[in-house]
From TrEMBL:
<dbReference type="InterPro" id="IPR018673">
    <property type="entry name" value="DUF2141"/>
</dbReference>
<protein>
    <submittedName>
        <fullName>DUF2141 domain-containing protein</fullName>
    </submittedName>
</protein>
<dbReference type="Pfam" id="PF09912">
    <property type="entry name" value="DUF2141"/>
</dbReference>
Amino acid sequence: MRDRPGALAQRLIAAPAILLALGAASPQTGVDITVTVTGLRNADGVVRACMTHEPASFPKCRGVEGAQGMAVPVAESDTLTFRNVRPGRYAIALLHDENDNGKADRAALMIPSEGFGFSRDARVRMGPPRFEDAAFDVAGKPQALSIRMRYVL
C-alpha cells in the first residue's frame, strides 16, 4: 500500500505533537536547588552566588557554559533558588558582597574582608576549596541546601 504524496511528511510533523500529548516525549527541564544562607553578619549589600559543573572554573561562573550566577539583596531574602538545574555534579560558591561592588574585597595580605561560603560547607585553606570538596550530585528531585557564611575579618 502506497501513501499519497506528502502523507509521510504530514505524519512526521504530527508525531512530536502526538508524543507530547501522550507524555512520551516531554523534554526534561531540570529541578530547583534552593539554598538557605546562614550566618550573615549584617543586611548590607548582596549575596552573590555561583553554581557550576566545571571543576576548572570553580568558584567562578563568568564565561562558563551551563553555570548559573545571581545576586540577591541581603535585606530581601536569605534563600536563593537555582532553577531548571539538569542532572550532574555541581558546586556552589557564595560571596557576601557587603558594598555591592561586584568583587571579593580583600584586606592586607590578601585576606578576604567579606563573607564567603561553599556547598557541603567546604573548608577554605590557602584559597577556595577544590571543586570536589564542595561538589554535590543533582538527580531528578529538587534539593534544599544550607550554606554557612564565614568571615575572616
